[in-house]
Structure formats: structure tokens, C-alpha cells
Design brief:
heterodimer, A: about 80 residues, alpha+beta, Translation Initiation Factor IF3, four-stranded mixed beta sheet, 2 helices, about 30% strand, globular, B: about 375 residues, alpha/beta, FAD/NAD(P)-binding domain, 2 domains, five-stranded parallel beta sheet, about 25% helix
Chain lengths: ~80, ~375
């Protein structure tokens, strides 16, 4: 899978420190359907650690992390 | 003909925008605010009701008394927004508009968590009083504070509540009989990374047990167990569970929001997506900022500037920068104050008496300060 995968939902969490990109992702996971591809845009450097950790812990799939000029794009697949 | 500006929602954001527009556009606009019950509630007061430090009648006032005389108030329920015809359908009539400000706030939906009937919260008046009574009867055992969904109003509130629980049981002299557990939905205890080490240390000093990555999925009232999305479980004697929140029903019914009913909003202009005559403010937006009165306060001048500029044909001069200020009560008359925006995370703040007293002063002066935007700079912080 790659970045070209069309996301079901894109969450623009750039500039979010509170509640933060991870909370935005958890919200998208709760509201989504199994199989959804969720893209999260984050400029918070902590997301690089937080998001894969939570995705792994919660049993979803971390499809990839793609660096952009001023943010990173996290692609996650909801598995359950 | 004066332009018609309709504001939906008489919370802090709606009230500030309505008053400021009516002051600025005395002859050019007719400003009307629509509120379901005509009551203005100071929501940060709920948690203090649960801990017996505030009285219910002190945090509710008639919206009419907070509005300038030239702001109209319609006490009715908005049920549908028709963007094409620029009309708001009310339960008992309708209102046409040239500009519409959506200050519709957030709704709580405890029923979305199976077994919620055994849990408590402090996100409305009735539940806050119920929690107060439950705490008064509690003489020892395990109290769990957990989160039933994101986003929710005031992200630091759950951590604040555990600090207040610690203080409350200390004052009652039974703290050693109470086992406190804080279940964070995140990788850390506190949502703000730079502040987290301070809060984590405070929890340790207060002998509060903590667990991360715990997003509540359901409650089993018979076994008194709460279960997480991540597959973990914990038992409790008293459960405080932040209820799931959604955008207002009128937003969902009008298809102006995302799947949670949060209005798709431009992060700088605060205009609703694909509608230049619609603005969104406060808890109602889908912006990645705290759902709090502070955000609504900082957003208000941008909405006012946007509408005034459009009416006068001048380019808008203000942009929302994501600014939020949070006061958090840490118990024992100490607090922390945090300021941040889209570009600047908060600097690690110490717990201090100064921040606590600022919060208490703000709580007392809210009714005079906020609705007519009289907030003095010394009560707020600064973003570095």
C-alpha cells in the first residue's frame, strides 16, 4: 500500500497541540467503518511516536508515514 | 435596509459575537440571537458543583440580561438551516438571514456507551449534582476517571477532576481509603505534551494510579467493570466517565458537519466550508483546538471582522491563529495556566497559587467580563 491509496477520511490536524492529532485520529476511528483508510496530517513532531504506538496498541494498521514540507501524513487502516 | 444577522446559540461565542456586531453595526445590521431556553450557563462551573464549591443558580443567568438592548433574542429551537434560501427553520417559525453565525456548541450523548447508566459525569447540571451526591456518600473504594470519546469539551477537565478528587477526599480526611485511577486515552496522561511531565509528576505525588491508551468502549454495570477499545478492562466502585460528544442536532440535520456533526470550518476565517455567509465559532467547529470558552472568546473578533468587512466591502483584517488559554485547577489552591496557538505549544508552566487565583477570579467575574468582551490582559497569558 502507498500514499496514493485514496483515504476515506482526511483529518487535518496541523497546528493541533490540544487535543492533538492522536485524539483526532481516535475520533476518526470511532466514527469510521471497518476498512476505512484514514489520513491524518500533523505538524506535531510527537505524532511520529504517538500515532504508530496507539495504532499498534489498538489493533489497527499503520499503512505509512509520508513526510511533506511542513507536516507528516499518516495513513491508517481501521481493522476492527 | 439593515442586513439580518442571525446567531444560533447563546453560549459564550454566540453572545460575544452578537453583542460586538450590535455595537459595531448599530444601523447597518439587525442582530438576532436564537437560544433554545434563553438561559446562559457558565459550563466550567459544573465541575465545581460536583465538588460542592459552587451553587447551581450561580452559574446560570438569563441570556437577555447579558445582551445589548439592540440584540433581539428569540427563545426557540433551530431545527434546520436552508443555505440556499438563507433561512433558519425554528420549531415555531422561521428566520431569514444575510449572515448566519453557528454557535451551536456541543451535545453530550452518554447513551452511546453501553452501560453508561452506572457512570457519572460533570458535563451538565443534573449530572453534576448527581455526582456531588454520590461523592458525598462515598466513604472509601476505587474511583476510576475515564474518557468515553473524543473530542470532548475542555480536554484538561478529566485530569483536573482527579486533582480535585484528591483534594476533596483529603479535606474529608479519608484520602487513604480512596483508590484513584486515571485512564488516559492517549500515549501520555495530559493532552499537551509539554505540560504532561508536570501533570504526570503531580499524579505520582498525589498517589493517583494512571494508565494510558484506554479509550472506553463499554461499561458492565453488573460486574462494575469498564472496558476499552484497546482490549483492557478495569473494575470500579464509582466511575466518572466523560460522555461522548457530538455537534448539535440542527447541524447534523442540515448536513453542515462531518460525521460527528462538527461544522467544517476554515481554520483562519472561521467561515463554514462552501458558504461565505455562514460562520462557525466555539465548540461547534471541527477545528483541531480545545473545545472551550477560551477558544470561542479568541474566535469572536475574527467572526465579527469577517462579517463587518463583507458588509462594508473591505478585505478582512483578522485571522484566527488557533489561540487558546486554559486554566486548570490542581487542587490545594494551586493551578496551571496554559497558552498556545497553531504555531506555538505552551511553555511548561509550574503549578502556582497565582494561576489558581486567576482561575477563581475569572470564574467570579465571567458574567461581567466575557459577554461584552471586557477581559483585561492581565487575566490572560501570552503565547511565546
Amino acid at each position: 500500500m502507498s500514499e496514493e491509496l485514496e483515504p476515506t477520511v482526511t483529518v487535518d490536524a496541523r497546528g493541533s497541540f490540544c487535543p492533538g492529532p492522536l485524539m483526532e485520529l481516535i475520533r476518526a476511528i470511532r466514527e469510521g467503518q471497518v476498512g476505512d483508510i484514514i489520513a491524518v496530517l500533523s505538524s506535531d513532531t510527537g505524532s511520529r511516536r504517538d500515532i504508530p504506538l496507539w495504532v499498534d496498541n489498538a489493533g489497527h494498521e499503520m499503512v505509512g508515514i509520508f513526510d511533506k514540507e511542513d507536516h507528516a501524513r499518516f495513513i491508517v487502516k481501521k481493522l476492527k | 435596509m439593515p442586513k439580518k444577522v442571525v446567531v444560533l446559540g447563546g453560549g459564550v461565542g454566540g453572545t460575544m459575537v452578537a453583542n460586538a456586531l450590535a455595537k459595531e453595526l448599530k444601523k447597518e445590521a439587525e442582530v438576532t440571537i436564537v437560544d433554545e431556553d434563553g438561559k446562559h450557563v457558565y459550563q466550567p462551573g459544573f465541575v465545581y458543583i460536583s465538588f460542592g464549591k459552587e451553587k447551581p443558580h450561580k452559574i446560570v443567568k438569563d441570556e437577555r440580561k447579558l445582551l445589548r438592548k439592540n440584540v433581539g433574542l428569540v427563545v426557540d429551537k433551530a431545527v434546520k438551516i436552508d443555505k440556499e434560501d438563507r433561512r433558519v427553520q425554528l420549531a415555531n417559525g422561521s428566520l431569514d438571514y444575510d449572515y448566519l453565525v453557528l454557535a451551536t456548541g456541543a451535545e453530550i450523548h452518554p447513551e452511546e456507551i453501553q452501560g453508561y447508566e452506572d457512570a457519572h459525569h460533570f458535563y451538565d447540571m443534573q449530572a453534576s449534582v448527581k455526582l456531588k451526591n454520590a461523592l458525598a456518600r462515598f466513604n472509601g473504594g476505587k474511583i476510576v476517571v475515564a474518557i468515553g470519546g473524543v473530542p470532548y469539551r475542555c480536554p484538561p477537565a478529566p485530569a483536573e477532576s482527579i486533582c480535585l478528587l484528591d483534594y476533596y477526599f483529603h479535606k474529608r480526611g479519608i484520602r487513604k481509603k480512596v483508590d484513584l485511577w486515571f485512564m488516559s486515552p492517549l500515549v501520555r496522561i495530559f493532552p499537551l505534551e509539554t505540560v504532561d511531565p508536570f501533570v504526570a509528576r503531580a499524579m505520582e505525588e498525589k498517589n493517583v494510579n494512571t494508565q494510558t491508551f484506554f479509550n472506553v468502549e463499554y461499561v458492565d454495570p453488573k460486574k462494575k467493570m469498564v472496558h476499552s477499545l484497546e482490549g483492557e478492562s478495569i473494575d470500579y466502585d464509582l466511575l466518572i466517565l466523560i460522555p461522548p460528544h457530538k455537534g448539535a442536532q440542527v447541524i447534523r440535520d442540515s448536513e453542515l458537519g462531518d460525521r460527528g456533526g462538527w461544522i467544517l470550518t476554515d481554520r483562519h476565517t472561521l467561515q463554514a466550508e462552501n458558504a461565505d455567509d455562514l460562520y462557525a465559532i466555539g465548540d461547534a467547529t471541527n477545528l483541531p483546538v480545545s473545545k472551550s470558552g477560551a477558544a470561542a472568546h479568541y474566535e469572536s473578533p475574527i467572526v465579527v471582522d469577517g462579517i463587518v468587512s463583507d458588509m462594508t466591502g473591505t478585505p478582512p483584517s483578522k485571522k484566527y491563529d488557533g489561540r487558546v488559554t486554559c486554566f486548570c485547577d490542581g487542587g490545594f489552591k494551586k493551578g496551571i495556566m496554559m497558552d498556545f496557538d497553531y504555531e506555538h505549544p505552551p511553555s511548561p508552566p509550574p503549578f502556582s497559587r497565582r494561576a489558581y487565583w486567576k482561575k477563581i477570579l475569572f470564574n467570579k467575574l465571567y458574567w461581567w467580563l466575557l459577554p461584552k468582551d471586557r477581559l483585561p490582559g492581565f487575566l490572560m497569558g501570552s503565547v511565546k
